[in-house]
Automatic annotation (TrEMBL):
Residues passing through the membrane, by range: 268-285
Coiled coil: none
Biological process (GO), any one: polyadenylation-dependent ncRNA catabolic process
Native organism taxonomy: Eukaryota, Sar, Alveolata, Ciliophora, Intramacronucleata
Protein name per UniProt: Poly rna polymerase
Origin species: Stylonychia lemnae (Ciliate)
Length: 411
């Protein structure tokens, strides 16, 4: 058995990122889902579990309360109930009367529609995207005058249409005739001398040196990297995943908003970055379709998000297991000789995600706050369970200040 398993692993390890993209882009039995607005969905089967008694016991346990807990604890029961009622009855700005009318027919269909309306409301507009590509062209012309043959590309959330309104942009500068440091210095000098940018930061003491700057005329911020095509490979991979899994994009916007609200969305502070989140959502959907099998069974978006919280909050044993989205998704033992990732073993309570672009890399190792994030996932799941049917917004239940995320500078 070990010999057979080794052969399978060796076969996986001979795959290239291009092989992965090709396999993901092949037509699948569930890639032709109807538009999400048209879904007639069913209720996801969930394991019967309740944590009410334990939560009540925990609330009575001894220990110091922080300032926010003390304020809440000092409120009377009537005041607490009134605050909950006010929050539940809020109608979010992304919901119009037509959408709200769906609730009288089906609450579940309403929350599904609300998630889609939230995405339309929070996403970067076509005008914003056009403006950012105009900035890209402006910088490219500027650089090509000094460094002929240089090409500039947009990558990241803006290029993938996954950016929130007001987001900054990620730019790749490519010229194989220059080394990284040489090209970096040239581009930095050009930007400083151009008078088109302000707040220029020369950030070299990182794994990937970047130039950060702000476009004077528009105030749009940007991160610029040199001669790294992994951003373009990631762009192609994410585009393929979005095409294959229509649910991924709306799930991403809600979960990203949740992580931002909890301030656990920045990789350099131990949070879940965009590419890690995309891998997590894709893997959850892969496991969902393996479990459901019947492609005609469809799920409301809020059910997917609830199950995502449960899967990564409770069900996946991250102490022992890692996962990959290769080959339709698989789980591996973190201590396995061929699949285990260096520096992330059973001794470490860390998220372990094989990079689909560089199989030896562990995307999850940077999520140092995974223990805190798992608790946040579990809390969100409980909040939804006990309050959703009385609420006018699924999104506001888990992101109470979601309306503040629009048109702000995003990370």
């Amino acid at each position: 058995m070990d010999k057979i398993f080794k052969q399978l692993i060796d076969q996986r390890n001979t795959q290239t990122p291009q092989d992965i993209l090709q396999s993901l882009s092949q037509e699948s039995t569930y890639s032709s889902l109807e538009p999400l607005d048209e879904l007639i969905c069913f209720q996801t089967q969930e394991s019967v579990e309740t944590r009410r008694e334990r939560l009540l016991k925990e609330s009575q346990c001894k220990g110091k309360l922080n300032s926010k807990q003390y304020i809440i604890a000092s409120l009377s029961l009537d005041q607490i109930n009134q605050l909950i009622k006010q929050n539940l009855q809020k109608i979010p700005p992304w919901v119009n009367e037509q959408t709200l009318s769906i609730k009288t027919k089906s609450a579940r269909a309403y929350f599904h529609s609300e998630v889609l309306r939230f995405v339309e409301w929070i996403q970067m507009s076509d005008a914003e995207i056009k403006q950012r590509y105009e900035i890209l062209n402006e910088i490219e012309k500027l650089v090509q005058i000094k460094i002929p043959g240089t090409q500039l590309y947009m990558f990241g959330s803006t290029a993938n249409r996954l950016a929130f309104s007001g987001s900054d942009i990620d730019i790749l500068v490519m010229n194989n005739d220059y080394g990284y440091a040489n090209l970096y210095n040239h581009v930095l000098h050009i930007m400083v001398e151009s008078n088109l940018f302000e707040s220029i930061d020369d950030i070299r003491n990182t794994q990937v040196p970047i130039i950060q700057a702000q476009h004077k005329a528009t105030g749009i911020s940007m991160d610029i990297v040199m001669n790294r095509d992994d951003g373009l490979k990631g762009l192609s991979l994410v585009s393929t995943l979005i095409s294959k899994y229509p649910e991924l994009r709306p799930m991403y916007f809600v979960l990203k908003a949740f992580l931002k609200y909890k301030n656990v969305h920045k990789p350099y502070t131990g949070g879940i970055g965009s590419f890690v989140l995309i891998n997590m959502i894709a893997f959850y959907l892969q496991m969902h379709y393996k479990r459901v099998r019947d492609i005609n069974e469809k799920v409301f978006l809020q059910d997917h998000i609830i199950c995502f919280f449960k899967f990564f909050g409770r069900q996946l044993d991250i102490k022992f297991l890692g996962f990959s989205i290769r080959d339709g998704g698989f789980i591996f033992d973190k201590d396995h000789e061929y699949l285990g990732k260096e520096g992330n073993t059973r001794e470490d309570f860390k998220l372990c995600i094989e990079s689909p672009l560089q199989f030896s890399d562990d995307l999850g190792g940077s999520v140092r706050n995974i223990s805190i994030i798992r608790k946040l996932f579990n809390l969100a799941s409980d909040v939804i369970r006990y309050n959703l049917l009385n609420s006018n917004s699924f999104v506001l239940l888990i992101v109470p200040e979601a309306y503040k995320l629009k048109n702000l500078d995003q990370d």
